[in-house]
Write a sequence for this structure.
C-alpha cells in the first residue's frame, strides 16, 4: 500500500546506520544557525548560548551579535551594507541546510528500524503496508482535528527548514497524498500513492526495500528539495536589511542591528527577569503585535 515518504525515510535510516554510523551523533552536536527569533525559546538558547550553560543574559547575547556583526562587516568599515548582509546570510543558510541534511539523513535510520518489524534488515511489502495503514489512520485524524478546530497546530506542513512535507501534519498529509488536490485523501488515492512510492524505492524490484534503497530514495528527494530551495531569490533578506537600516542610509550600524536584537531577546525572556533559560520555554509567548505577521489559514474543503 502506501507511504512513499515513509519508505524513503525508512530506507535512509538503515542506510545511514550502515554507511554513516556517526551521523546521528554529529547531528545532536550541531547548534542551530538560523531561527531562534524569540518564538522558539529552546532554539534561541541553543543558537546564542556560547558558554553552553543553558541560559543567556543580555551581555552574552550582545557579545554573540557583536561577533556576528563584525564578521559580516567584510570591508571592516564599522558598518554593514546590504551586499555584506546578503552574503553573510546566504553563507549561513548554506551551512544550515547542510546541517539539516545531515540531521534528516540520520533520522532515516530510526524510521527504517521502525518499519523493519521482523528485524531482518529489509522492509517487506507487508511491513510497508502495515506502516501505510497507520499513516492513513493518523493522517485522517489530523484532517478531522483540523476540520473541527480541535488542534490547529496540525496545520503546519512540517519537514523542518527544508520544508519536506510531513504526514504528521494535516498540510503535510495533503501535500503527500491528496493527488487530485480536492482537499481530501481517499483510501484509494492513498493506496495508489503508496504503490508508486514502494515501486520507486524498490530499485532492484525484488519486492522488498533494502537500507541502501531506502537511503537512496530519501536522499534523492531531499537533495531535489535543497536544489529547489537554492533557486529562491534573496528578496526577503534585502527587505530585512531595509527594515534594520533605520535611517535608510544604506549602512547598518551595530546600534541599528541591535534594535531587532533587543526585540528578539525580550520576546524570548518571557519571565522578564533578564535571563533566558528553560523556564521561559514553559511560559506562553506574548501576543503577536503586528497583524501582518499573523498566520494565514489556507482554505480547505471539509469532508461531506
Amino acid at each position: 500500500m502506501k507511504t512513499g515518504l515513509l519508505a524513503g525515510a525508512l530506507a535512509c535510516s538503515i542506510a545511514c546506520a550502515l554507511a554513516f554510523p556517526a551521523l546521528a551523533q554529529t547531528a545532536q552536536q550541531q547548534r542551530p544557525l538560523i531561527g531562534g527569533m524569540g518564538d522558539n525559546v529552546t532554539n534561541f538558547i541553543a543558537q546564542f548560548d556560547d558558554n553552553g550553560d543553558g541560559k543567556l543574559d543580555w551581555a552574552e547575547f550582545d557579545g554573540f551579535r557583536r561577533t556576528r556583526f563584525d564578521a559580516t562587516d567584510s570591508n571592516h568599515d564599522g558598518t554593514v551594507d546590504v551586499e555584506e548582509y546578503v552574503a553573510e546570510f546566504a553563507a549561513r543558510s548554506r551551512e544550515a541546510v547542510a546541517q539539516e541534511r545531515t540531521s534528516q539523513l540520520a533520522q532515516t535510520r530510526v524510521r527504517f528500524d521502525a518499519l523493519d518489524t521482523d528485524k531482518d534488515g529489509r522492509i517487506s511489502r507487508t511491513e510497508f503496508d502495515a506502516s501505510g495503514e497507520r499513516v492513513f489512520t493518523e493522517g485522517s485524524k489530523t484532517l478531522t482535528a483540523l476540520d473541527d478546530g480541535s488542534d490547529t497546530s496540525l496545520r503546519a506542513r512540517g519537514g523542518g527548514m527544508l520544508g519536506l512535507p510531513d504526514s504528521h501534519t494535516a498540510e503535510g498529509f495533503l501535500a503527500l497524498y491528496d493527488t487530485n488536490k480536492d482537499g481530501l485523501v481517499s483510501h484509494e488515492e492513498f493506496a495508489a500513492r503508496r504503490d508508486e512510492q514502494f515501486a520507486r524505492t524498490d530499485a532492484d524490484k525484488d519486492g522488498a526495500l533494502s537500507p541502501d534503497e531506502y537511503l537512496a530514495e530519501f536522499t534523492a528527494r531531499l537533495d531535489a528539495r535543497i536544489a529547489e530551495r537554492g533557486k529562491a531569490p534573496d528578496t526577503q533578506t534585502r527587505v530585512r536589511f531595509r527594515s534594520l537600516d533605520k535611517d535608510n542610509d544604506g549602512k547598518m550600524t551595530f546600534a541599528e542591528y541591535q534594535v531587532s536584537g533587543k526585540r528578539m531577546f525580550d520576546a524570548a525572556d518571557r519571565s522578564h527577569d533578564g535571563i533566558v533559560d528553560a523556564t521561559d520555554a514553559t511560559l506562553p509567548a506574548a501576543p503577536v503585535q503586528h497583524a501582518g505577521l499573523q498566520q494565514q489559514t489556507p482554505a480547505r474543503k471539509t469532508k461531506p
Q: What stands out?
A: Residues 1-27, 291-299 have pLDDT under 50 and may be disordered. DSSP finds twelve helices and four strands in the chain. The beta strands are 56-57, 123-124, 208-209, 275-276.
